[in-house]
Design a protein that fits this description.
Elements: H1 2-11, H2 16-37, E1 42-46, H3 54-59, E2 63-68, H4 71-83, E3 90-94, E4 112-118, H5 127-137, E5 138-149, H6 151-160, H7 164-172, H8 190-199, E6 202-210, H9 225-239, H10 246-249, E7 253-260
Parallel strand pairs: 1-2, 1-4, 2-3, 4-5
Antiparallel strand pairs: 5-7, 6-7
Helix pairs in contact: 6-7
Domain Methyltransferase type: 44-144
Pfam families: Methyltransf_12
InterPro entries: Methyltransf_12 (IPR013217), SAM-dependent_MTases_sf (IPR029063)
Length: 261
């Protein structure tokens, strides 16, 4: 995702636009599942870093364990949780997808009701092993929220920058990289993601592209709350538009929700 992040920084897009669409869907899903179970959720956020996903869920009353390999990121998470009054519901743990099988949810309860894997499947050593480990800690009927970098927008970005050989390589290589010097370890196509999930016992229930426009729009055109709201509403319509499914493939990332049977 490194080139997509650079594209957003150059455009100067308001940072909330990078996460708001995913967080809005996630908040609704968590609230619905919590209502079904009649209690707050036990959430596992793998690769959750400084808590951009975890803290809003904790603020909504859910109990969130955040696993990340970076001690610096976890220190920032602790400060963020303290600043938002969510420290009692946020549990930082240093680790990765290989160590989550050793975790117990707070209070010793297993398994988790919701697992978030946002921007992490691209960088793990083996996506199959990572998803197998997640399946092992997710409750039956539980929800996996998966966000992955997409191949097509990266190829388009390289082509528009005049890097035609790299764009072709992104389209043709199985890992979606332009070469060994590509800072992104892996990119995905929608069908590849869905096949991976099905192979590990997950049932995809929603799949849509995110950040179709927001990574490209200059900040000068999004300088008010009304502008940001309008852009997010456009993103929502485009990502779910049945008559124009290609739009979702142009999103910098894909957000997939899946349940474990």
């Amino acid at each position: 995702m490194a080139d997509e992040r650079g594209r957003s920084r150059r455009a100067g897009t308001h940072p909330d636009l990078r996460t708001a669409a995913v967080q809005g869907v996630l908040d609704d899903v968590a609230a619905g599942r919590s209502a079904e179970l009649g209690r707050p959720l036990r959430v596992l956020d793998v690769g959750g870093g400084t808590g951009g996903t975890a803290v809003p869920l904790a603020a909504a009353g859910h109990d969130v364990t955040v696993v990340d390999p970076s001690p610096d990121a976890l220190a920032s998470l602790r400060r963020r949780a303290a600043d938002t009054g969510t420290s009692e519901r946020v549990h930082p743990v240093q680790g990765d997808t290989d160590t989550i099988g050793d975790l117990a949810a707070p209070g010793g309860h297993r398994p988790y009701d919701l697992v978030c894997l946002h921007g992490t499947l691209e960088v793990v050593d083996d996506p199959d092993t990572a998803l197998a480990n997640i399946a092992g800690v997710l409750a039956r009927g539980g929800i996996l929220s998966l966000v992955v970098a997409q191949r097509l927008p990266a190829a388009l970005a390289r082509a528009l920058a005049g890097e035609f050989v790299r764009a072709r390589a992104i389209l043709e290589r199985p890992d979606g990289r332009w070469g060994d010097d590509d800072p992104a370890p892996r990119r995905f196509d929608e069908q590849g993601v869905l096949d991976l999930l099905l192979a590990h016992g997950f049932t995809p229930v929603d799949s849509h592209g995110v950040r179709i426009f927001s990574d490209l729009v200059p900040s000068a055109l999004v300088d008010s709350e009304a502008d940001r709201t309008a852009l997010l509403e456009l993103e929502d319509v485009a990502s779910h538009h049945r008559d124009h499914p290609l739009l979702g493939a142009l999103g910098s990332v894909r957000h997939v929700l899946a349940t474990r049977g």
